Amino acid sequence: MQIATWNVNSVRQRTEHLLRYLKEISPEVLCLQELKCVDEAFPHTEVEALGYNVAVHGQKGFNGVAILAKAPIEVTRGLPGDPNDEHARYIEAIVPAGAGIVRVASIYLPNGNPPQTDKYTYKLAFMDRLIAHAKYLLALEEPLVLAGDYNVIPAPRDCYDPAAWKDDALFLPQTRERFNTLLNLGLTDALRATTDEAGLYTFWDYQAGAWQRNKGICIDHLLLSPQAADRLVKVTIDKQRRGEDKPSDHVPVRIELA
Length: 258
Description:
With 258 residues, the protein is α+β, with helices and mostly antiparallel strands. The protein has helices at residues 15-24, 44-48, 118-139, 162-165, 173-184, 190-194, 226-229, and strands at 2-7, 29-33, 53-57, 65-69, 74-77, 90-97, 100-108, 144-149, 188-189, 203-204, 216-217, 220-224, 232-237, 253-257. It is built from seven helices and 14 strands. It is globular. 43% of the residues are buried.
């Protein structure tokens, strides 16, 4: 079973990229972030024609998350903990898998910049809510995959130049501490369960030749419950997608579960 995550940075601008990925890779589940469209504007017809069930939590112009699955899914929209939060940043689904299920979430964490503003306060509050919800989900003792654009650089090896990011919301100590809190709950970072290699990136900025110079960062992660981690076979970063015509600045990351 392949489960992938991808910040597409506008699904309407990259519908052809999305359809090509679904045809070529054909994951059982694909989590999308930064759709930048309302539910009705998502390319439902084209995706469903490829055999996928579609669940969207959209928002006009920015944010937006979705889960695409080959099997019928049971869906929950929104991260608990703040009824006043109107940002479309979290969607969760129960996906049939063999004789059981896998619970999957598509997450688009706030960027948080500039750190001296309410944007960073919101980022930390969102992460605190995610920690609380992850505790609840882990208590269910199910295979669980929390996938998405975390907007977190977990460690210096996940960045081309840590010094350049030391004051950025993605790399501040408070941000990394909360990411580590998630791991300390019992979640496993899928990529880091398979390799300690540095320089494995999932995002390259559009500016200053970042892609051509491999000046990237790793901010797209799949965190696994013990029941999912026990089934982890491999992790793949589909880096070549960044070299396509008019690509997203993120690339897909996918795991294979036995």
